[in-house]
Amino acid sequence: MAASRPSGPVASETAAARLLAVLWVVSVTTGPWGAAAGGGEESLKCEDLRVGQYICKDPKINDATQEPVNCTNYTAHVPCFPAPNITCKDSGGNETHFTGNEIGFLKPISCRNVNGYSYKVAVALSLFLGWLGADRFYLGYPALGLLKFCTVGFCGIGSLIDFILISMQIVGPSDGSSYIIDYYGTRLTRLSITNETFRKTQLYP
């Protein structure tokens, strides 16, 4: 006589057990254990360490420009030290077991292009000599400076507007550079939207 096939709850449990077994095999062969069995997992790069697994030094600031000393093309680099007992590949591609005193990688930070225009000087000129156009002459706008000089700061209205614009850093040097401002002082950061900016999907009713 043919053996009877399990039915009902017994069959469901058997199918579920087989499915779990298959999923376990797949996870072992494709997961981290599978990578270890296939020859070992590739070492992590130090640049890919998570926050808290390394510490970076503060940049060295140039007293004249108030920007990092190695600022080039709006980018500077600071040395970062992986935490003790962290093993990763350093910037040279060498796998190293760190003790907390070795440099693991150089982290890029943003910096600004300055060309000798002081924010404090510009604000002071705008406040006290703005009606003579001294602020515009200083920032490299001779035509507007001469016009303000001949009209006594557009009867004071232009001087007030320029003072507000310069104080809010909306008007800057004519060459497109940034003001020299204390590195740890108050600065305005302009936000812009690019193709890399995350755009949240709008849901309409």
From TrEMBL:
Its main location: membrane. Residues 116-164 form the TM2 domain. Keywords: Glycoprotein, Membrane, Signal, Transmembrane, Transmembrane helix. It is found in: Membrane. One of its GO terms (cellular component) is membrane. GO terms for biological process: apoptotic signaling pathway. The chain crosses the membrane at residues 117-134, 146-166. GO terms for molecular function: amyloid-beta binding; G protein-coupled receptor activity. It is a multi-pass membrane protein. It comes from the Eukaryota. InterPro entries: TM2, TM2D1-3-like. Belongs to the TM2 family. This is TM2 domain-containing protein 1 isoform X2. The lineage of its organism: Eukaryota, Metazoa, Chordata, Craniata, Vertebrata.
